[in-house]
Structures are given as C-alpha cells and as structure tokens.
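Q: what does this look like with 2-phosphoglycolic acid bound?
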Amino acid sequence: MKYLIANFKANLNHLDIINWLEIFVPETQKNTQIQQKLQSGEIKVVVCPPFSFLLPLKEKISGLTGVVCGAQDISRFDNGRYTGEVTAQSLQGVVEYAIIGHSERRSSFSETESDISQKLHFCRQYQIKPILCIRGKEDKIDPDTPIVCYEPPQSIGTGDNLSLDETLKTKKQLPLTPKQLFFYGGSVNAHDTHQYRANPEIAGFLIGTASVSPTDFLALLNAV
Ligand code: PGA
C-alpha cells in the first residue's frame, strides 16, 4: 500500500475547501482507476486540512473507501486551560492520523524534541497514528512511532525533490525499526513519482503544494 498524505498547510480558506471537495469527491467516485486502487488497498489517502475544516471535510469524504482525515499537528498539552490549543483528546475519533514535527513547526514555531515527544505520547494515548516528520538523521526518531517521514527542508515547496537514490541513502542511515513505515515528502508531484512508485522501501508521500489543487492531487492518485 502507498499512502498519500495531503498537507494543505495554511493555504486554503473555507470556499477553497468547498471547491476542492466539489471536484475531488465526485471525480474520485467516478474514476475507475482510482476507485480500484482505493478499494483494493493499493493506495490510502489522508487529507489534512486546517483544524477548522476537519469536521465538514470528514463528512464529505465519509462515502469514499480508503480516504480518511488527518490533522496537521496536535497540541503538546492534554485537555485543559490552554486557550487556542487543539488537543489529541479533542480529535479522537475525528482524525486517524496526525502530522507531528513538521519542519515548518520546528523552524517557525520553535518546536523542540521534547514538544514532539509529548505530542507522540498524546497521539498514542488517544489512538491517533502519528506521522513523524524528520529533516534528516539529526532529528530524533521514537522507536515506537509507526511512520517516519523524511522531508529534506531544501526540497519542501521548492520544486526540487530529492532523487530516489539520495532518499534511500538517507533512509539507510536512520535508526528505523523493521516495523516502521518510511515516507518521503518534498516537492512530490504527479510527474516525478514514477521513480518511487515501484520501490517498496517508500511506503508513502507527504504532499504539500501538489495537494492544494484537487486536479493536481487527483493526477498524483492516478500516477502512483
Ligand atoms: P511540498 O510540501 O510538497 O510543497 O514540498 C511538503 C510538505 O511540507 O509536507
């Protein structure tokens, strides 16, 4: 199975999301190639909108097999007096996955390894599967986290994705357990996934820019 994680980041507003769903849902339903991949478990899609759009999005995709919701982050706190925070407990049953430790959180929000450990802990406590993002071998990998996504910062949003060879070279240097799934993220688009498609070592992709347009994202679903 190949996982495709759509990370909208803070790119879309309410009307954009409605428009995205109005294209994505019917096209996914009627495209027999995509349907076959989703139904057979060849691919799984996780859509990660901003928190405020999670519930309406979840409702709209509820009829699609193999398409689920994810969060772009969760709080490092449990429920309590933390104004503005969105906790794992509040997302339990809403999301199946959460992106944790994205390099944009580490750089723009000074997220530390200790914050990330807390977030992984709460994911576990509230049955949310974390997708732990790392920038390279300098970042800590919790051996109990089920998914590790390598995202070289120089490849994020630049159009300059890393080659399969370089990705696999880094993968070899990471202390991964045999059970951990390895994902790649950084300028993944429909035109260059062929190099990864047949490779069993890459279990999934984190997709930013190419997920913002529903047609680009559908092209990726077709291509993978
Ligand atoms: P990108 O973003 O596809 O725009 O490079 C990937 C990510 O940051 O998750």
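The chain has a mean pLDDT of 96. The pocket of 2-phosphoglycolic acid is lined by residues 7, 151, 156-157, 185-188, 206-210 (CB under 6 Å).
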